[in-house]
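Late entry, evening session. Most of the bench is empty. Finally got around to the prediction I had been postponing all week. Sequence below, unchanged from the version circulated by S.P.
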Amino acid sequence: MFEKILVANRGEIAVRIIRTCRELGIRTVAVYSEADANSMHVQMADEAICIGPAPSSDSYLRVDRLISAAEVADVDAIHPGYGFLSEDAHFADVCESCNIRFIGPSSRAMNALLDKAASRALARKAGVPTPPGSDGVVENEAEALAAAKKIGYPVLIKAVAGGGGRGMRIAHNDISMMKGYHTARNEAEKAFGNSGVYIEKYFENPHHIEFQIIGDGRGNVVHLGERDCSIQRRHQKLIEESPSPLIENKFKDLRKKMGKAALRLAAEAQYNNAGTVEFIADDAGNFYFLEVNKRIQVEHPVTEEITGIDIVRLQIMIAMGEPLKLSQSDIEFRGHAIECRINAEDPADGFRPSPGRIEMYYAPGGLGVRVDSHAYAGYTIPPHYDSMIGKLITYGKDRREAIDRMARALNEYLITGIKTTIPFEQAILQDPDFRRGYYSTGFVEQLQRRGSQTG
């Protein structure tokens, strides 16, 4: 058993990891920037070390400072959480070279899925359906235009690195193709330090469905079911749920097909630890591979609720060298779970970030309600990082009960002093189409248009 783990992250995921470590009797070390000195994860950990100024480039993204903190604290392992350096193969290599276990996939597995273009090639090798697209990165405008004409408009110009909608543009003709190509490259360079882009067929309003996978590096790999992440704004997820309404309502056999595809890809990559294989699906039941997220996901609690499996605990046990003691037949899916991301943003002002001091904070509770958050009354949200301040998860025996609990819990959630996305999520839960499970990735924009027309 590890004796001490350094959590190389902040916010709610740092708190989440510390909680599981405590249950396992493992001591924890928090790292923090100067802006996060009063953050909850700093207060909860057994030790805390400041690693630099507020900008993440001077703190949470500094490999040298993280390794120095780990060596000073004499830890056995580092858990990177999500974001920051969680998918950085170089960081994983440095950890191992310093005799510090990296709690995540090996650098070999990460390099096999180095970026979206490499992942597409591996998926094709594994027999996993991929959208029509370019053969890897397009190096110039002429190659981009040739690829778009071969695929057929509309197409998606996508950065090979990163995510969250950055470095991504839709093109419907040659003119928008040329403009979008340069815009996507510039945005990708600024966001990820990699200007590479590739071209892919664009599907109007598909369903975004992902599968949680866990492997032990010994050839044992399972999936923990799907999550539907189609409720998103500008490619940023707002609400996730499991099981997927599309699969439950229309295509029951899709779960088995997509699950097997995810496992084939994981086997091809010799994947270990936790990861997520993301797909899009259309209304005819066709599905296509998108990418692999080589880390724990923000929305992992949804899967934990319907399987009863602590994914962070599994990550730690696998990193210690324990074999996966689960087979696919051991995993049971019970009930329904929904997650709302609570962001410090003002939906009435174009989702403008709303950092500042939280005056009052009251989290909802009751049967089937879970809150993962680092927020509290008196906490000041810094402007330097992602705007998510918590996740509200509800569980029910079926989808209707989970939705009703979420509606009740959102009404109970009290946060004053800042603006949050709670009112917008309340509106989504009241929408008849959402309640029936009739939605795709275009749902939020459609809801906003209806609101502006009625307003």
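Two things to note before I forget:
The mean pLDDT is 95.
DSSP finds 16 helices and 22 strands in the chain.
Will write this up properly tomorrow.
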